Amino acid sequence: MDEKFNILMIEDNPADARLIDIYLNQAYDDGLYTLTTANNLKSGIEMAVIEDFDVILLDLTLPDSFGLETFKRVYEKTLDTPIIVLTGVEDENVGLNAMKMGAQDFLIKGKVKAKGLRRSINYGIERNNLHKQLLEKTKMLQEKTDDLTKEKRKLSEAQKLAHIGSWEWDINSDRIILSDELYQIYGLTSGSFNSSYESFFAQVHDDDKAMTRQIIEDSYRRQIPFNFYHRIIRPNNEIRVIHAIGEVIRDELGNASMMLGTGQDITERMKEEELDKLATAATKSYNSVIIANRDGEIEWVNEGFTKLSGYTLNDLKAKGKTLFEIVSETNSNSAKNFDKSDLDLKPISFERENFTKNGDKYWVITTLSPVFGKDGKMERIIAIDTDITVRKQMEQELVKANRIAEHSLMKGNKALDELMYAKKQLEESMKVKEQFLANMSHEIRTPMNAVVGFTELLLKTELTNDQNQYVDAIKTSGKNLIVIINDILDFSKIQSGKIAFEQIEFNLHKLIAAHSEIHLYKALNKKIAISYEIGKEVPEVTIGDPTRLSQIILNLIGNAVKFTETGEIKIAVDLIKEDSEIVELKFSISDTGIGIPEDKLQNIFEGFTQASNETTRKYGGTGLGLTIVKQLVELQGGSIQVQSTVGVGSTFIFNLKFINKRTNTVLKKDTIPLGYENFPISDLYVLLVEDNTLNQLLAKKVISNWKWKVDIAENGIIALQKVRDNNYDLVLMDIQLPEMDGYEATEKIRMTLPSPKCAIPIIAMTAHAISGEEERCIKAGMDGYVSKPFEEAVLYKKIISVYRKVRMKKQTQ
Q1: Which of the listed residues 87, 166, 201, 560 has the most CB atoms within 10 Å of its CB?
Q2: pTM above 0.85?
Q3: Separation CA 213–CA 216 (nearest Å)
Q4: Cβ pair 10, 74 in contact under 8 A
Q5: DSSP structure string for 596-644
Q6: Which strands form 361-372's sheet, in the order they lie side by side?
Q7: Residue 608: how many CB atoms within 10 A of its CB?
Q8: Greatest distance between any 2 Cα atoms in the chain
Q9: Do 388 and 406 meet the contact criterion of CB atoms below 8 Å apart?
Q10: pLDDT tens across 299-343, in order?
Q11: Which is nearest to 559 in space by CA: 628, 657, 473?
């Protein structure tokens, strides 16, 4: 049981009352209950009438009442509350008679234990709740009313609430009786079901059968209740998720003779919860979001929609217009003429002119994205509106950049749609999750490569102050989005257990100094001082994973800078202990920022969590940074804690162990061959294999600025032919391509072309950025890897590095 419940115990014997209290504490160590006691029948009845109790523990022998008369008087006043009778060993028959009169259970004093008490209370409450729901449903079905609309709404709500069927299995005769509701849930008819256990069990999803059978057998063997979730497959191959609850019924000899249970179809509830989560995630960018059913009837709008248009959900429902009618009321021909049947194939996006509730005109980009069910049919439509009113007013020089932003938004919304679909499939396999993450990363990084790249190019041109401000805002937003994407990917890699740690030699002192320098510019802009202090006993060089340590430190310093307006930030490293094998260090990052409330400290490392909603609105972020930090520390055997006072500042402290360099050899160290850096670079002839027009334009512009020649191939087939027919110095290969992808094109270049063309340097330049992608590219025969969005300096350095390395290898052969 997850919800807190109230218990009334009517018991005049202090010793018995104390013993029951002890058993309750043992049974519910999670503090789920509150206990109220009365030592006589009169006060107990008064309490039961005034307050709402979920269960009553009743001693039949009280100062002012005795025997079954005690139960009768309490039962008459509390018909809707389950009563569990407490009786002595000699009064066992009295307890049984009380159950015949309506008691949920009876417990024998002296024999009751914590486990039996918990089971009796839970069963009594759950059975009473189910009984109430079934009575309510029966009552609603029998009611007649003149207000047909109101009755239909009540019935609909009752069905959503109840959607529970029951079953009864006679173990000796192997006969199962299903309720009408359970027949409907399982998609069965009495004619197609032979009433045996195996026939019932055959409906369970193949992947869940072993687990389900084990739980049922354990319940039967140990005679304990069960409560779990599993999937079923209906005769029409539709998959549903079932919440199964049941228990074993024993005969008079104590042998298991029957099992009773319920099955609740929670599939739709899970879908609704996932849609709410995803819609909430979409609102973080403050876009306007509308969710409608397949007929266009609007079910949900977010705060962003209300802020943009002035309309609430109730306003839209009062107007009685569908989503299709709303988007068609515009001066845009593309919005007026769109065919909603096209949504069965792909998302639709267009610009349209709108008017707020107050009559003010504004422009948005509307993207209508279908959400498909498992039957392949559209179930819902998500409409995302992005306010582009300012863009419409900008000068012509920024039109191209904003179109790129629109394209990026469309791709981002498509990736969000894929995210929503993938979240519903999480139960199937981790392989599906990884493939989705690869697609999401590619689809968002591909347009973001154009957005960030063209923005940097635009910043190099002459702009007005306003234009420079707008373009810089686009660049900052793009890079922030990449940070969010990387956080999500890192979080996923950690959760799936696929993150790897290196053990290489690195200079710890230089690493700390470099990371202090990275944030110095932003800190100085805020007039914040940054300093670091490294203990004298801390070794300068050690062995560990500098990349993951950098990720931890950069995240903590970045948070300190973000949440500090005045004062200073201090970074300290101290030696905890050292032996012949291990060096354990303590790292601390202190700030004089806003601080964290004491009641939020215990949750600050949880995923998608920040100190408050105000923090999220003011400072932004996904709430994943500290979660990733904590897991990276703990996966390396360390620990992290935080000390904070609101208005004073915060200190994050973490411990990590490293291999002692003084007594161990380096496990891995990157080296550069002698003479590697001395190869001269003449004019290069580069083949760019890229299907995205905007990214073609961006890469060609960047490479041309380096005075190199560029040729373009739109897919792997064209690339293969061009490498065969031309003499290129290097190939930049996208991975996700039409006709033939980058992996296959690389393999064919390596395997089918003659020397020296088969050995041409190939660098993957891809929006795929999930774990293992770089290793996969190298294994496929490529010589290097650059992820999108790329930075000019990073791409240039990678091209020079790969080209020189390949040339040197040829000369040494």
Answers
A1: 560
A2: no
A3: 5
A4: yes
A5: --GGGGGGTTSTT--S-HHHHHHH---S-HHHHHHHHHHHTT-EEEEEE
A6: 298-301, 288-293, 378-387, 361-372, 348-355
A7: 14
A8: 106
A9: yes
A10: 888 888 888 888 888 888 888 888 887 777 766 666 566 666 667
A11: 628
